[in-house]
Amino acid sequence: MIGEIICVGNEILIGDTLNTNTRYLSKSMTNLGIEVAYQVVVGDHEERLLEAIETARRRSDVIVFTGGLGPTYDDMTKETVAKALDMTMVLDEAALEDMRLFFEQRKRTMAETNRKQAYRPSGGRMLRNENGTAPGIYIKDGETHYILLPGPPKELMPMFEKEVAPILETLSANVITSRIFQLSGIGESDLAEMIGHIMDISDNPRIAPYAKLGSVNIRVTAITGTKEEGKKQIEETTALLMPFLEPYCYSYEDKSLEEVVVQMIKEKNQTIAIAESCTGGLLSSRIINVPGVSKVYRNGFVTYSNGSKETWLKVPHALMVKEGAVSEAVAIAMAEGVAKVSDASIGVGITGIAGPDGGTPEKPVGMVCIGFTINGKSSANTFYFNGNRKKIRDYSVQYALTTLYSLLREI
Amino acid sequence: MIGEIICVGNEILIGDTLNTNTRYLSKSMTNLGIEVAYQVVVGDHEERLLEAIETARRRSDVIVFTGGLGPTYDDMTKETVAKALDMTMVLDEAALEDMRLFFEQRKRTMAETNRKQAYRPSGGRMLRNENGTAPGIYIKDGETHYILLPGPPKELMPMFEKEVAPILETLSANVITSRIFQLSGIGESDLAEMIGHIMDISDNPRIAPYAKLGSVNIRVTAITGTKEEGKKQIEETTALLMPFLEPYCYSYEDKSLEEVVVQMIKEKNQTIAIAESCTGGLLSSRIINVPGVSKVYRNGFVTYSNGSKETWLKVPHALMVKEGAVSEAVAIAMAEGVAKVSDASIGVGITGIAGPDGGTPEKPVGMVCIGFTINGKSSANTFYFNGNRKKIRDYSVQYALTTLYSLLREI
């Protein structure tokens, strides 16, 4: 069962929008046992889209489109698919009613242009959109399946899960089972050296490491006839890998690092408070993205100025002058200060130079100090990150979480 | 001059890797006046790649490949291009020498497999890779230009800038000029209705609206013979659009909403402090992503628990009990409290239910109250957002910034 994704949108062709939909669809279709063999992007251009459809129907069994279902005249995906398949466009009364309700519930007036979105190719059926006004469309024409989805990810993703996945599940004879081992504290080449002998002997399950921001993951993928066989193969490979990965693997159940850290804080009856300077609240916001964090998260402070570090975290003025705001001593003082004023057992302090200005030869842009205190024991690390302001801040948060994970394992 | 990008790699087709190279190449080629009409991704699969090359040479003038230049047997891009163009593979002595130096400088031994990377199609020439072992390749065959680039972004990007951009610059007779109008406080269909009459009459410059998270942008693109003519056309279209867009447009200079907000706070001699509950530091972190924000940003508090709202922001206990932690009254009290304790003229308070638990019929998941105080004048809004925990938090921050922008315009 060969799959193809056709993305319609000028904003992707000119590089304005990063194509995250196609990644999401590829991953989801692969997990449903469909081999995605082609991804194609074309503009809002009838002739080129028509050619892309003709090519796709010759070579693929499932063609998933995204984008071009909006209300304006340059949204032309469904009209062009109808043309390629020799269908007419018909008004779908149920979809129109859904749309009226959508606007009524939001106390907004429906624009006349929205009516266009209630039309569908005559041989297709609508897929409900609970998060917007553009319904999706499913067409089976001969042996080929056409699925048309809206462009905005928050409309596309729920629609895929609720309406499309059940259709695709019935199509494929193969089941793809995978497990991702998430590692921290080891680089990709060291890892390849360590488990290369296992990777080499196994083509199915396939073992592939890949680098993520500040960490490395390993994906194990098995293609099998049944779900049970897939699970069995994944477990066998896990047993082979884990003796090597154990010191680095924080999850193989698709949990985020912050989920694992929050879980550990809970299990070890700790509480946490966080003080951030250059990261400006990013670490707190990642930790607070974990549901139920309220039991362990005490407080966060964004102390961007020197004065606020002194006022709120009680960092001694003399220390700031002597060591500088970006120093391991101040990072530790921030961690200890925030833990104390928040009555938390764990404190984290981040201070650094995210740039583009503010660097010196001794303390360059990208230098970040991260301090920790856990049950009265304090420590700090200094990192030198490359990249722009955003990158440096993202790395800082990633390494703060990684170090926190290591420290929590030890208590 | 029609451009096409062909990306070779299984990791993209299974959704493991986000395709950032194609975005980078699209943007860069567009800026050089090449109309990127197609983006294609195929796997490490000779037959499919061959077909993609055949299709591309029929319809495109410049074909840029990425990936598949590595040392292993499944890297086959250049061999397949050679086959399609009826060329043989020849050893490039200069490239081999470069590669030997690369390893020597890094005190590493060159693996025998790397030798493969020093071969090129007979009609092509090598493009130097200063950051890795895979040289790029440039082939002109008839009127078609083939450019083969390595997959890793840190090798691809410098090679594009140094070696490829100078080639492409000489090819295009057209210049593409564009301007993006960033809007807040208006939906896509209302916008289409408002400026539809201008969009309809103009094909070049082309005017295209597109939705972003919680906002809408308009892109105006002009294709002209000279840069000057492009600029002139963009200015003329701006003059046509601005009477309609003025109430909603916060930037047409590619500035982010937070940049504009920070700039306004500076210009109006204000200072800001932020208290966040459900967003957990996200608003602070977006504002702090603006360089030089230290002049106006006083403090941030992440007060996730009820207790910390009372302790740090002096939200009255009785108010919390009477109105509940998620209420406009508490959002205002948070805003006023954080402004007061931080000695800031502007305070923002966000409190809401990001889910997945904690919702009630009266206060459902997705309900978020955002309070503001500016120079002693306070107000609040309640929003009901759809989506998962992360989405609800992202929307909250977007709407907080949008509202802040509107309030700042009024003072």
UniProtKB/TrEMBL annotation, chains A, B:
MoaB/Mog domain sequence ranges: 4-170
Signal peptide start-end: none
Classification via InterPro entries: CinA (IPR050101), CinA-like_C (IPR036653), CinA_C (IPR008136), CinA_KH (IPR041424), Competence-induced_CinA (IPR008135), MoaB/Mog-like_dom_sf (IPR036425), MoaB/Mog_dom (IPR001453)
SMART domains: MoCF_biosynth
Stated family: Belongs to the CinA family.
Protein's name according to its UniProt entry: Putative competence-damage inducible protein
Biological source species: Petrocella atlantisensis
